[in-house]
């Protein structure tokens, strides 16, 4: 991200910050001057992040634990910036979807975003400060994918939740947007899409002919958090290389 994009003096919360996109966002925000709290349910990941980026504060929580989140996030704030990145992908065919997979996906991909955003938005309103929220969605919210019945559905619900949040929080000067990436080359993404036959089938549907890199997503998130996007709210920023136009 361009050096002049500064978040100096602003407080940010990033969920799912132990690995991948969330971790990269937390590091980028910290290096751009923000005071960052990184939330993950995996203590080892947070310890590693703290060593990599000593200025980052950490919060070890399972977002499905409503009461623990209420107490810990409430105490850690107030925040002016929020990135809801945490998600789970329970991949099952429609006929094989289990109740536990459905409930876990709803708890993390939808319920946790709603809950954390409520806590942080209330803090913003009490403080009387403008804020920005970015919810990490997916191209899967816009296109049906085999074995993604629950994942596609929860991400689609997240997109609509974000629009309602933008409508209701706008009068408080709080902007809400989503980023909707295609496959992203995180460490996990490289493992899951290392089979050339599997990856070719997806890349053939992407006009730019490649998957997204982590920085592609991080740069878009930082833009939507920044004052450079001051008139953007309720929008979904596709980071899909044109997947949806094919």
Automatic annotation (TrEMBL):
GO terms for molecular function: carbonyl reductase (NADPH) activity; L-xylulose reductase (NADPH) activity. Keywords: NADP, Oxidoreductase. The keyword DNA-binding does not apply. The gene is Der. PANTHER family: D-ERYTHRULOSE REDUCTASE, D-ERYTHRULOSE REDUCTASE-RELATED. GO terms for biological process: glucose metabolic process; xylulose metabolic process. PROSITE patterns: ADH_SHORT (PS00061). It holds the Pfam family adh_short_C2. This is DER reductase. Transmembrane segments: none annotated. Belongs to the short-chain dehydrogenases/reductases (SDR) family. It comes from Hylia prasina (green hylia). Homotetramer. It comes from the Eukaryota.
